[in-house]
Amino acid sequence: MQNLIDKLHREKVLSQAELVTLLKCFETExxxxxxxxSRAVADQFFxxxxxxxxxxxxxxxxxxxxxxxxxxxxxxxxxxYRLQAEDILSCCEHGYELGFRTFVLQxxxxxxxxxxxxxxxxxxxxxxxxxxxVTLSLGEKTYEQYLNFxxxxxxxxxxxxxxxxAEHYAKLHPxxxxxxxxxxxxxxxxxxxxxxxxxxMVGSPYQTIENLAEDLLFIKKxxxxxxxxxxxxxxxDTPLAQYPAGPLNLTLMLIGILRLMLPNALIPSTxxxxxxxxxxxxxxxxxxxxxxxxNLSPVEVRRKYLLYDNxxxxxxxxxxxxxxxxxRLQRIGYEIIVDRGDFKPLQPELA
Length: 351
Description:
CATH class: Alpha Beta
Radius of gyration: 19 Å
Number of helices: 14
Order of helices and strands: HHHEEHEHEHEHHEEHEEHHHEHHE
Shape: globular
Low-confidence stretches: none
Structural class: alpha/beta
Mean pLDDT: 95
Strand order of the largest sheet: 2-3-4-5-6-8
């Protein structure tokens, strides 16, 4: 397997058959060799610096009914909430004091927030904090909507493609949602000029190793600036509640592979990793990730934004999240820095 890892390191791509072969060995000693390579690449581009994003989960209303998601519209047990513009700005103000220079506005696809409301919120944040980046994670929109948000000042957009395989996508989502439209959104975002984040769940129901290889090749084709992957974790009030969580080792291996494929990408070590293992986020950094996303949402709403069960940090204040992560990363030789953490294109000699 080391020859495949070396080839990936050198050429930044493998064939689908080669990726399948590599992924089938995710529980072997070869993962240690992969991590030594992926960590070295991350260190080459970012040193021991970790970028931090302030996550603001501003609504858990959603018009969609994805089978894996705890805030799906059919979950009548979910306790719904919406943050007002002043609440969101207050989160940003507190986050700025704590050293955050990127704010991530994440929510369900909530039509209560009209385009005009979102544009006003984006514009107000940018005017209030001109040295900060605004990242949106609002789901599927039209080209015109994405363009309007961009003109209002949004810098980045996160939209996990979830799975690149159309048949697999249909098993996780109801009619009306398609892999093709999801991917259309991502290419629209890139065309407009956003720094774009794609990604997928690892170990989701019905997923095959071949599906994961397709995901990797789709990401290579898209070449997003950000890549967010994490293990599938079931939510007890969804149709997929009986399925097990995705495996930690495979998730870490995929982070390592993605670091070699797109060496300068911004790759978060996710809360989901920390949920399935007490040191999951640190392990993600050591596999090649370079971003963490502490929660800036008000404590009183955090327990209501549960996409999956047992989510960590739902009772902590923003400062607790920030400094807890800082201490954890210092123990493994990394440090959080005060920086927007923008994507930087590869220099020609490194491409």
